[in-house]
Amino acid sequence: MGKQLAAVLGTGQTHHRAKRTDVSMPGLLREAVDRAMADARVDWPDIDAVVVGKAPDMFEGVMMPELFLADALGANGKPLLRVHTAGSVGGSTALVAASLVQAGVHRRVLTVAYEKQSESNAMWALSIVPPFQMPVGAGAGGYFAPHVRSYIRRSGAPEHVGAIVAAKDRRNGALNPFAHLRQADITVESVRASQMLWDPIRYDETCPSSDGACAMVLGDEAAGDAVEGGAAWIHATAMRTEPTTFAGRDQVNPQAGRDAAAALWREAGITDPLSQVDVAEIYVPFSWFEPMWLENLGFMPEGEGWKLTEAGETAIGGRLPVNPSGGVLSSNPIGASGMLRFSEAAKQVMGRAGDYQVDDARTALGHAYGGGSQYFSMWVVGSAKPGN
Amino acid sequence: MTAAETETPETPLSAPLDVGFDYTRSVGPVLGRFVNALRERRVMGVRGDDGRVHVPPVEYDPDTARALTDFTDVADEGTVVSWSWVAEPLEGQPLQRPFAWALIRLDGADTCLLHAVDAGSPSKISTGMRVKARWADATVGHIRDIVCFTGVDAPPDDPAPAPPAPPVAEQAEGEPVRTVITPIHLHYLHSASPEESRYLRGLAEGRLLGQRCPACGKVYVPPRGACPTDGVPTTDEVELPDTGIVTTFCIVNVPFLGQRIKPPYVAAYILLDGADIAFLHLVLGCEASEVRMGMRVRAAWKPREEWSTTLENIAHFEPTGEPDAPYESFAHHL
Questions:
Q1: What is the pLDDT of residues B218-255, one digit of tens each?
Q2: Is the dihedral of CA B106, B108, B110, B111 positive or negative?
Q3: CA distance A56 to A59
Q4: Does the CB of B152 have a partner CB in chain A at under 8 Å?
Q5: Domain of A78?
Q6: Are residues B87 and B235 in the same domain?
Q7: Average pLDDT over residues B310-316
Q8: Domain count of chain A?
Q9: Cβ separation of A24 and B282 shorter than 8 Å?
């Protein structure tokens, strides 16, 4: 027996901010959960299991968050799982939840991911130097900047492509009432004038640090059929992993990402992603990762991802709108960022994306990556059931 | 017995790794009520949907998951329900002399509060014992405004010294507490693998030791002990020169907490001649804007008397002035 059909019944997220000191950590999650359950029109007795995800423990100094979040997540007496795959965790958490429905184990699963970055300092947590090591690390930006430089050299992309992505995503964020950064007036020129943080990555090309959470209610075919206006049907899912370093590793275009994408398109029956996908929510924490992932995901041939961006085709109204919600560049509660991509893809095909709704969005990609570009998780959701 | 007495050339190296951070916790509307009541020397609980009074208050009902808002005061005196003796208190615990962790059901509450009981000895605490909160001289809005509990009938003759007041986040005078500070400190003993230890001891002699995979022939520095691609042990030691190239790099302009090198600095992947994997190091000796992909570099070692078992013996890498390596020669290392 193959997989059972599964669908997104509803989604919810917090208002993402630099500091949500108005709520506790459980309160932050509940804000997203309450919205998702209202959107899905379900109540606690309808939920069979809960799957929660957050980024590495040092980021907030909370180990085993599932223990103290059980009450807030209505999980007492129900299965409660925690998923952990670094920055991709929001995506992989959604996929674990989906698999519980696809396996026929549960009818409805609540899944939630979060980060309360203001309670700690992720830059510090990512730069702890163990004994004997050279203390040159400088957080996520310091890690990814050399690989961005490699991409620029390899592809021959013009220098302003990163700024095009940043300006587009921040302007999209201005259309999203939940976004942390809402910068309707940002321009390519103003991005290029912003401070160079980790050369070649500029301040305005860098994701913010956000407090926030995202939740979804996933359900089986009967539950999906009951969604007014139509559920987001899960057409394909994929996860792949590779080590952080090994000799000959392609750090710009990692094998694990390419393999995950190939498996994803195959399962979804997609042979030409650029033509067949209507909108993509891709994990872009630093602007240059848009063209890099366009290639890694197979939307564009290697070395040519930047051409789609430069031509404006990734803006709303373009051939493949990428991150119409504003993406990670507009809101970055790390643990939730991947699930936000997955849920924004679902909102698009459900027609619930409000001011940043892409016209006739029937097939959408949600994508997340994490660690040193080593964890990849992704899904394709559609307004129609798979095979229809 | 000290490490020095037992260390042999094969003993893995280890060193302390202390990690600590003062995490800030926003308490939210429910725990906020609790800590702000503590500041007034009151203990507050919340009534759940089944009528039980939870102390400390829970934000969401354990059975219905509903957000709870029906607050009620309880006594600062109650009954020990269970306890465990702490003969050797740890850093950061409420009392720095032997004490009991106890589950205490305060009068008016239906659930138990975990707190310290200053009983003096395990013979002076028992289940069912009546205890009363000992309040701090100055309360700040924190669980430690209750220093500990003591027996109602037989308080200790020599009360434990009160620890200093817990740290609290900045707040305006008279404003309610919205954030508490939770310092967390972890003390590890970090051990290097046998292979990395050999490499580190080589560094102490100014040598760069790698290992070659017998299957794929790739040279790893630092050595891994096993090839990450082939999964086979690596035993073939290779000594590498202290010259190589910059494959790629970034210029770090941003200051951050815990940073040990003053920005701006060039963090570069250095591929030693004969190695198949690059490692991160510093490049100095030229303007940051002059660093290039493919640039030839050489290690600038610290003075020999400063060497120890660390890659920091190499202060930085600096340009050799030789022509750059062609892109094609290192493109597969990016």
A1: 999 999 999 999 999 998 999 999 999 999 999 988 88
A2: negative
A3: 6
A4: no
A5: 6-121+211-225
A6: no
A7: 94
A8: 1
A9: no
